[in-house]
Amino acid sequence: MTQATDTSSRTRAQIADRTLRKDPWWRAPAITATLLTIWVLYATVHVFLGRWYWVPKYHYLTPFYSPCISGSCATGSASLGTWFGKVPSIIPYALVSLPFVLGFRLTCYYYRRAYYRAFWRAPAACAVREPHKTYTGETRFPLIMQNLHRYFFFAVILISVLNTYDLTQAFRGPNGDFGLGLGTLIMLINVMLLWAYTLSCHSCRHITGGRLRHFSAHPVRYWIWTQVSKLNGRHMQLAWITLGTLMLTDLYIMLVASGAISDLRFYN
Amino acid sequence: MGYQAQLRIWRGDAGRGDLADYKVEVNEGEVVLDVLHRLQATQAGDLAIRWNCKAGKCGSCSMEINGRPRLACMTRMSTFGENETLTITPMRTFPVIRDLVTDVSFNYAKAREIPSFTPDPATKPGEFRMQQVDVNRSQEFRKCIECFLCQNTCHVIRDHTENEGAFAGPRFLMRIAELEMHPADTADRREIAQDDFGLGLCNITKCCTEVCPEHIKITDNALIPMKERVAGRKYDPLVWLGSKIGRRQVKDTPKVPGKK
Amino acid sequence: MTDIERHSYDVVVIGAGGSGLRAAIEARLRGKKTAIISKSLFGKAHTVMAEGGAAAAMGNANSRDNSQVHFRDTMRGGKFLNNWRMAELHANEAPDRVWELEAWGAVFDRTKDGKISQRNFGGHEYPRLAHVGDRTGLEMIRTLQQKVVALQQEDAVSHGDPEAMIKVFAETTITRLVKDGDRIAGAFGYVRDSGSFILFEAPAVVLATGGIGKTYKVTSNSWEYTGDGHALALLAGAKLLNMEFVQLHPTGMVWPPSVKGLLVTESVRGDGGVLRNSEGKRFMFNYVPDVFRAQYAETEEEADGWYADPENNRRPPELLPRDEVARSINSEVKAGRGSEHDGVFLDIASRLPAEEILRRLPSMCVQFKELADVDITKEPMEVGPTCHYVMGGVEVDPDTAAAAVPGLFAAGEVSGGMHGSNRLGGNSLSDLLVFGRRAGIGAADYLDGLTARPAIAQADLEAAAAEASAPLERPGGENPYTVHAELQDIMTNLVGLIRVETEMKQALAELEKLRERVLTVGAAGGRGYNPGWHLALDLRNMLIVAECVALAALERQESRGGHARDDFPQMSPEWRKVNLICTLDGDRVHLSRQPMKPMRPDLLARFDRDELKKYLTPDELPAPVTPEEKH
Prior knowledge:
The structure holds 3 protein chains of 3 kinds.
Chain A: H1 27-47, E1 54-55, E2 60-61, H2 98-106, H3 109-120, H4 149-169, E3 180-181, H5 182-199, H6 202-210, H7 219-232, H8 235-258, E4 265-267
Antiparallel strand pairs in A: 1-2, 3-4
Chain B: E1 3-13, E2 16-26, H1 32-42, E3 62-65, E4 68-71, E5 85-89, E6 96-98, E7 101-102, H2 105-111, H3 132-141, H4 149-153, H5 155-158, H6 170-180, H7 190-195, H8 207-211, H9 218-234, H10 237-244
Parallel strand pairs in B: 1-5
Antiparallel strand pairs in B: 1-2, 3-4, 3-5, 6-7
Helix pairs in contact in B: 3-6, 6-9
Chain C: E1 4-8, E2 11-14, H1 18-29, E3 34-37, E4 54-55, H2 67-77, H3 84-103, E5 118-119, E6 129-130, H4 136-159, E7 166-169, E8 172-180, E9 183-191, E10 197-201, E11 204-207, H5 228-235, E12 240-241, E13 246-253, H6 267-270, E14 274-276, H7 300-308, H8 322-334, E15 344-347, H9 354-360, H10 362-372, E16 381-390, E17 393-394, E18 408-410, H11 427-448, H12 458-469, H13 480-494, E19 498-499, H14 501-518, H15 531-555, E20 564-565, H16 573-576, E21 578-585, E22 588-595, H17 601-604, H18 609-613, H19 627-630
Parallel strand pairs in C: 1-10, 2-3, 2-11, 3-7, 11-18, 19-20
Antiparallel strand pairs in C: 4-6, 5-6, 8-9, 9-10, 12-17, 12-21, 13-16, 14-15, 15-16, 21-22
Helix pairs in contact in C: 1-4, 1-11, 2-3, 3-11, 5-15, 13-14, 13-15, 14-15
């Protein structure tokens, strides 16, 4: 304390309004909540559908089913082989990767902000009173698990490698030689952006160089850190864009696989 | 060019008070603080405002203007419509002294709990050698003018007074980050950042960054990197294993004691 | 009788800016129980406004720099009116004070080899200012603040109470110094938030209250700069020195009106910015005075070459000392070559890439963008002179910072002498550190030599309390805001940048009328955080200071540094030997002359005889050196 007088009797200004903000502060959390809900509903439906995830002719596999390890997987789609027998699609075919992908996004520093604001409303917007009586933040289970973000990051690096492998397969035409279709390009864009999102992660920024006290003693790591930091500045945008490209990629492959449309081929 | 602005200003003390209506002349290029000064000089000589430099450098005139935490000296009247009523209230998180002035001693108490800069005692003044790339991060945080708008806005204490003891607030978690990234500092404040200063209470909703008049990226550059450092210290199984088998010894710096 | 909260300390430091905090730290390090009285919150002092840097001849950027060169530059900048011992101490000790800050946690910008970077500034021969972008003052105040906290943390461990040995009394204003006989016995004031009275019983008081800028309308100074320390010293019987020297910083903002006077850092020019008139001409080449002719470039090519190759080119005239630049801008505007809003153009946009401007001058970019809608990376700034600093102040002993009253010390802007008639940019921050520390030592040594603590008479307290309460008892009295505005108008219009006898006489007459009105100002409302009341009390101080400035300015019949007379445009070696001393005789300001102590021969020998001729009278000059002796 630097005050000389007794200050214990003082209280805050008693203002009843939840907020005095006049701008449409509720708009951003409402948009976030809507978009995230739509995405989660869409993804849930397709993940548990058990069909239209693989285009055998052009070797397109949707990321929602990669790696396909269930015995129920269509011939040719199981790049890592099948790990068990036929099961109903209530067991997702990519159950070995989906929890990590989901966990990576759930513990992502950007998504945390988005869903704390949009769904938990803690707070919905700055200087807008939140509706909860108590607040413990990320100090207790389950939210203390947010600290495991870096392990999800490591796992997602592996999954991104797998996505890249799936992309290389999509460059094969019907006869196995080089081929190129609109689906290939969509997958290419998706994989590139997934890498960008993954590498722009705050944990990645920490691991590659942020944890150092002396950048000057580690010039290579400092260079990597500056590049990751640049990407990290766009982490929020990448988080949203990759939700879009994931959905687009999956939707396109689903439409081609179901026969609703046919792939636009540029070569072979 | 001038016009009459409608103001509603919270007036009162010890928490009791109400919004009072005023009409004040506004001229071209003026900021909210100019208008409050005119109000003081012409209609309400005892209107309590805290201000110093009127240049956005001292961080004294923090208040809430139309519900948004702002510096009155850096908020231009031209950002509002001429017919818009401006509602001006004191910072909500701190106890009111009078009118727009709040008791911010909470912040000074928190500042005193954080272990200070701890250089290697062998390094004498004049012998420090640090590269610009090594000090850039700490320098960003040292731009802080201690306006305490981030402290005021952070919902962890704004909406939950019960957390005041356990939470140092963005400004002081950033101070910890500044020291942890200082190339010549030797202490390790990661554990106390989590256990004593409430880094775990932060849910990175970024309001501190949003209101910072110095545009410091508090969340991305200070709080999240600190959370990652804490994860490395406290929630990393490999580090934990290392410390158990004696490969890595961590020496935590304790929090500074207060008055006995 | 009102209740008065009493505290007992060894040393009371009034002011929590750079010099106050440095003094307090030193007193505490020497084992004295120290109170810091801050008119504002802790860490908000006017020092935060300092932008450019702290001048210290560390020689990091140019190894030829040393304290002798720094001393020379300081004396030249002050036109040889400086207290030469202070200038010497300052030049010698500034590097240690800056290095010490670094050890306390200050994070300065770096050179390539990892040392503290130093930048160019007006009047400094070599790059000399340790800096942090354009927010050096903030770095300094924060570092000192954090050092106070670090000491409190030590005391929490050793004494069980962080405030056992050093305590900050924030938002507390001192209205009177109290004496026991002729010695200082304490300080009386009020706590802003409650309005209650507070007394500090202390044998030693350090004044570190800063300047007087709020007596002027167009100023870069903050709310606190009401000349409190100057007035307190006078009221306690101390002397003010050379109060006519008020520095107008050449580059303040001029538009919009609400920010008129706001500082535009000299670093803009130090980093390559140039001044142009409405015809687009770099007019400063026309204004290099004879005394500086040898050191400044004559062509744009040479001036531009200096930034990269200072060995073979002379300095650009934009980097002349501040008084020269301010007057030059004034002349351009008067000649009709000013900008739309009676300023000139300061152009950095065409001189550096946008990215570099953003990196070196971040707060300037924000200041212009947010307050004037000007993007300084694309367009020039409009600037004009603004009241910035008072060179005059409490007369002190150079080594101990002791004022004429035993137990009273002064450091920083409130003290006088160090900067002569004009302060060089960057010399202020180092001044605060060097003499802040010396004042702390001075106070500690004074205490050690004391046999008994002084006592305070009840009658003095009652008088002080009555004086402070008076405006509250006149709720219908004159509006203090109106009186303040009139005082500022008088000083700005009549005792401003260019002065003439008739105007100053008029100013003194109007101040005389204002004196009556200051006695009748009243404050409506209660005691708690009542700004009207606070201003009413500050008016007493501003009026005393204004009278000193006007009287001294009228007396000094020459032009030198921060004092420019239209009717006496020349600098006079005879007047250089004269210090003007302001004292208080009852409630009347009294002015007298005091001879300047001749400079020590070894210091004199640091200058060329030819240069000294421009400043000194023939009988002051050292004997000419014969060719044999020179060898």
